[in-house]
Amino acid sequence: MKESLKREIGGEFHLPLSYLFKKRLNQFNSFIPNSPGFLTSSGRDSLRLIIRSLNLTDGDEVLLPSYLCGDLLIPFKEESLTFTFYKINADLSVDIDDIRKRITKETKVLLVIHYFGYPQLIEELRKLSEEHSLYLIEDTVQSFLTRCDGQFSGSVGDLSFNSFRKFLPVLDGSLLLINTENINSNNLKWANPSLTHLLYLCLRYLGMSSKNLYLKTRIVPKPLFLWFFALSDKALNKYPKPAKMSNSSKSLLCRLDFGDIILKRRANFQYLLDNWHSDMVQPLFHELPAGVCPLGFPVLVNDNKRDHIRHELIKRRIYPPVHWNLPPDIDKEEFKTSWEVSRAILTIPIDQRYNLTDMEYILRQIEVIVNWNTVPIVGSCGLAH
């Protein structure tokens, strides 16, 4: 059966011009913890501020999860800090016993990641950190709209940070929260404003707005917005950090309906979960707890077929990212589970741009692909960013 899809599923957010003039809903403050916060330009900017605020010195050690994006290591390497990895279980929960074994007198910081919106056992980690006088940092890049047991993600650790770009159609932005009185926020210093940062914002806007025109009219060629996004990624690595969040993105935050965003993400996730029937491609999580706002719908692909499945989905204009290809810093023998997950994982897009019709399309395409049938393909075969 020939099946077409007018729009693409996945990739970078697009930005309709109308968003800049939408009514201000001012919901943002209702969906974040009530703690002193700073709006930085990116998660990397926030992490740099966090590292410098802790006054770490040579010889101090940071414990990091063995399942992470390589970009997370950049600020630690730039500050010449020592980091040690700890084990992650197959369901991406932290191995608390392994953490406990790795704590030494040099260990000063424990960083945890709440993967795909699912919270770790943060209260238990809080107690462990207090026992050993460690700073607890929560990486809420994938979970900032999650609320568990009445608490917002990022409100338990001493510090937390996120990245708005993973969830929202904004140019930049990250929220750094300080939940302890042991850190003097007056010591946080910003980099001077730079033309490189302005260039980054302009390139992001050109990428998002040209993608919107591509999706709405097809007048703009696809390679153009991919080129703008690629250039913005390069500029992200070059501007002086830490930088402040742009006023344009702050204005957009005030206009977004966060309640609706959470409802749509949860509805799309639950629909896939309820209707998933593939043995070759299996969901990583088998339930959607109350309060969880998922980043995407992570699946594990059996029999080393991950790259093939991804390629076939891209042919059908479904663009599932890989979270993540692990950096070589993580030992393949010591952290076998992390590497096994990394080789098998795909993230099916389920964000607020899409509806249940889109989810049904994804399910049909998965069924076709795993059954090794062929169908006429409509759309571009190029990778989206």
Low-confidence stretches: 373-385
How are the strands of the biggest sheet laid out side by side? Answer: 2-10-9-6-5-3-4
Total of DSSP H or I helical runs spanning 4+ residues: 11
What is the CATH architecture descriptor of the largest domain?
3-Layer(aba) Sandwich
Mean pLDDT: 92
Helix content range: 25-40%
Radius of gyration: 21 Å
Could you name the CATH topology of the largest domain? Aspartate Aminotransferase, domain 2
Shape descriptor reads: globular
Major sheet characteristics? 7 strands, mixed
Structural class: alpha/beta
Which oligomerization state do the chains in this entry correspond to? Answer: single chain
Distance from first to last alpha carbon: 29 Å
How many domains would you count in the coordinates? 3
CATH H-level superfamily of the largest domain: Type I PLP-dependent aspartate aminotransferase-like (Major domain)
CATH class placement of the largest domain = Alpha Beta
